Amino acid sequence: MKQKGTLIVLSGFSGVGKNTVISQVLAQRPEIHFSVSFTTRAPRTGEVNGKDYNFVTREEFQARIRRGEFLEYAEYNGNYYGTSMKVIRDKLEQGVDVLLEIEVQGAAAVMDKMPEAVSVFLVPPSFEELSRRLYARGTDDEETIQKRLAIARQEAKEVKNYMYIVVNDTVDHAVQEFFSILTAESCRAERRIHFVEGV
Ligand code: 5GP
């Protein structure tokens, strides 16, 4: 029987460098399917519809909620974010690993519905460094940055519910730690029991 794919849930404070780490991960492992979320937030400069997010109106998002299309969704900083269920289920069935990049409430919902998911939280080397990175990114105004830092302090309380913590001191190091987790997960006895079946 074909192995099901692994569902990997990655969360991290806003500004920690999730996108950079993810683009490195996907560059090195193009076979991983990155789930493109739906959001009602406005696109940032350089973001591409259908690649970074599916950008939709609040009305469309709410219609999708009513139709039960989301595996999970959450409101974050005044905008909706959600993961479409269908693509993920299909990919996992086909044996493809799927990476979700979602915030803590959505991650909690996924861990609840799919306890076999591997959950990873990406942290900065320090909180001061996180603040520095948010200012350096230059995409948000002072008020938004302060809001994001306040959200990060709340999110920090949920980190203990994750299976793994990866430290993003350098991108290479974070990517290496991330791949170590995937390697360990693929070596779990339950995934390798076929080696001894019929012995
Ligand atoms: P940003 O606006 O910086 O792209 O994302 C804000 C937050 O929303 C991040 O913490 C990101 O992980 C989270 N996020 C992105 N997509 C989803 C999703 O589909 N569901 C949930 N629950 N959170 C998401």
Strand order of the largest sheet: 2-7-1-8-9
Give the strand tally. Answer: 9
SS-based class: alpha/beta
Major sheet details: 5 strands, parallel
Task: Please bin the fraction of helical residues.
Answer: 40-55%
Shape: globular
How large, in whole angstroms, is the Cα Rg? Answer: 17 Å
Our measurement of the CA-to-CA distance between the termini, rounded to an integer number of angstroms, reads: 18 Å
Question: How confident overall, as mean pLDDT?
Answer: 95
The share of residues in extended strands comes to 15-25%
Instruction: Name every ligand kind in the structure.
Output: guanosine-5'-monophosphate
Assembly category = single chain
Compressed to H and E, one letter per element, the order equals EHEEEHEEHEHEHHEHH
Contiguous uncertain segments of 5+ residues = none
